[in-house]
Amino acid sequence: MRTATVKVECRDAVGWIILDHPPLNVVTAAMAREMRLAVDRLDVDPACAIIVLTADGERAFAAGADVGQHTHDKVRELNDELFALAGALIRADGKPRVAAVKGICSGGANEIAFACDFVVAREDTRFALPEIGIGAVGALGALMMARFMSPGKALELGLGGEWMSAAEARTFGLVTQVLPLEGFESALTAYLQRFTSRSSAAMRLGRRQLRTLLEPSLASMLTDLSGCLMDESIALEDYAEGVEAFLEKRKPVWRHR
Questions:
Q1: Which domain covers residue 93, as residue numbers?
Q2: H-helix or E-strand spanning residue 165
Q3: pTM, to two decimals
Q4: Residue 192 falls within a domain, yes or no?
């Protein structure tokens, strides 16, 4: 099945959730909701052993969340849907989740990709948390990245907003495999076969056991962080200025408050 911006299908024991919002798969609140509902459906589909999040198009996995929905009248819905999606992806009871990323993976795209159990990246992938440019730290993305890398490096990415290549990301443990640009689809298929050839019951049980032990407080951390962002971050004058400047295509004038 598909919606206007998300395709969902099960092929060869793989449940695919495919972003399809040209040209850069910018994530809206509606898209995040559709992805969460797709995760729910695929988790109970007996034909699927694993769930893979990926994207159509060549330029981007996703170029972040829609800045047009960061305005004060829309940001709460966007925040709630992104956190709900992250919660669905990290929950212990579910099938293994894999993010297969390519091209640009920035901002809110990292909140989705690194809420998965592991990430594979095409060699041209570039990661960034650029939200600091609109007066906010990409805190959810940094938290999800910190599951795989040192907290210090995740904080550096969140505060600095710099880009990281796929090769560099692998050195920090962010991605488990870097797949070639040429033949990416076939390389991804071969990679996924190591999971689809196993007992899906054993994988799901083992995932639940490990996630429960390794990350017992992650769900409550998401709840706390969501509240902080809504109560504190969007109240900053610099946040309002940053969003307005981005939408007006000008440099922000920071008030530092």
A1: 6-180
A2: strand 164-165
A3: 0.94
A4: no
Grouping H, G, I as helix, E, B as strand and the rest as coil, residue 3 is coil
Helix (H, G, I), strand (E, B) or coil at 110: helix
234 falls within a domain: no
For residue 23, say if its preceding peptide bond is cis, omega within 30 degrees of 0.
Answer: yes
- For 49-93, write each residue's pLDDT tens digit: 999 999 999 999 999 999 999 998 999 999 999 999 999 999 999
At 158, which CATH number? 3.90.226.10
d(CA 132, CA 112): 18
| Amino acid at site 63 | A
The answer to whether the beta carbons of residues 128 and 161 sit under 8 Å apart is: yes
Segment-wise mean pLDDT, segments of 10 residues, the chain, 257 residues: 84 97 96 97 97 96 95 94 97 97 98 98 98 95 97 97 98 97 96 96 97 95 95 94 95 93
Question: How many domains does the structure of the chain reveal?
Answer: 1
Q: Which residues of 236-246 are buried (b: 16+ CB within 10 A; e: fewer)?
A: bebbbbbbbbb
Tell me whether residue 195 is in a domain.
no
